[in-house]
Design brief:
About 0% of the residues have low confidence. By secondary structure, the protein is an all-alpha fold. It has one domain. It has a two-stranded antiparallel sheet. Helix content is about 75%, strand content about 0%. The chain has twelve helices and two strands, in the order αααααββααααααα. The N and C termini lie far apart (about 70 Å). It is elongated, with a radius of gyration of 27 Å.
Length: about 325
């Protein structure tokens, strides 16, 4: 069943429709990351509320959410509209060369996240045993119990109860595990229902992290460097045990085991980008116009230089051709 793909797609469209209402000018990749995070934050809460009303999480409930999100997207697109140049900014035309390195960087980050999750989350051996990295092994039994309880419970209420402690109301932020339950109902296996949101929201977080750093500094290199430092920060284990300063790698210690951090950090950085735009929109717009003007001048100078070089080359070729035929130089007109 491919219902999970439709759920992700309409969540993205809903976030894209919300972004069309905003005055901020996104780059194409930045808008995609923003739309995935914001759209899912809305759609997951919506399917949770529908489950509370229906008394259980079911395929029908997921379908209801898909239809409502699609309808809301159509309405919001009609209200806000979305200009093509805002969608494709930095993806086609003269922006391709400028953003090609950024797309390569994002591809490398995505490959790293896919490899990290495939290796570290419920990796099966030939005998069917499931393996995980240390932090995931310690935390995910709790997360899987929440997800399966949401997926298979026949009595759905708010606030939900801990499956480990009967009758105890839940105070843990459960939305990511509930989303895994939604994906299980929509056709994914238990492992797939954890891997897909892990990779999706980790990737969106790093994309928005890059975007905020780039907006703050105006530098693509600083944006990439900030993500690189985040991924590889932390002390070696020997240094931590010797000095007693436990600076763990955030990818290993936070993003992988603490699933709520994935969506929470993504939403946080989406808010930070909007806040930065609200506070510094005038300066940002002026800087953008200056940058685009500079790029346009450089492009025009490059075209003029190329045309001049081509003209000189053509003149020299004509000169050599006529000399070869024995024609006098004063008749060449060059």
């Amino acid at each position: 069943m491919l219902l999970w793909i439709f759920f992700i797609a309409v969540s993205f469209l809903l976030g894209l429709a919300v972004s069309s209402l905003l005055s901020i000018r996104f780059l194409a990749a930045e808008r995609a990351f923003f739309s995935l995070v914001v759209g899912h934050a809305i759609s997951i809460w919506l399917v949770f509320l529908l489950s509370c009303l229906n008394g259980a999480l079911s395929v029908a409930t997921v379908l209801q959410c898909v239809v409502l999100c699609a309808a809301a997207s159509v309405v919001l697109f009609g209200v806000g509209g979305l200009k093509e140049e805002n969608v494709v900014k930095g993806v086609k035309g003269k922006g391709v060369k400028g953003e090609r390195s950024v797309l390569v960087f994002f591809a490398v980050v995505l490959l790293y996240l896919v490899a990290m999750n495939l290796h570290g989350v419920f990796r099966a051996d030939e005998a069917g045993n499931l393996y995980a990295i240390h932090t995931v092994w310690a935390d995910y039994p709790f997360h899987t119990s929440l997800a399966t309880a949401f997926a298979y419970s026949e009595n759905f209420s708010f606030p939900p109860s801990y499956p480990q402690f009967s009758g105890t109301k839940m105070h843990y932020p459960f939305l990511m595990d509930f989303y895994s339950a939604v994906l299980m109902k929509a056709g994914l296996s238990l492992r797939g229902a954890f891997l897909v949101p892990n990779i999706l929201f980790q990737f969106c977080f790093f994309g928005l992290f890059y975007s905020l750093a780039r907006r703050l500094t105006g530098s693509k290199r600083v944006g990439a460097l900030s993500v690189f430092i985040f991924i590889f920060s932390g002390f070696p284990s020997g240094l931590q045990s010797s000095w007693g300063i436990h600076f763990l790698n955030p990818m290993y210690a936070v993003l992988m085991p603490q699933r709520t951090a994935m969506l929470g950090l993504g939403v946080s950085f989406a808010v930070y980008i909007l806040l930065f735009h609200a506070l510094f929109a005038e300066g940002e717009e002026r800087e953008r116009e200056e940058r685009e003007g500079r790029e346009e001048r450089e492009g025009r100078e490059e075209r003029e230089g190329r045309e001049e070089r081509e003209g000189r080359g053509e003149g020299v070729f004509r000169l050599l051709s006529r000399l070869d035929r024995g024609e006098p130089c004063h008749t060449l007109g060059v």
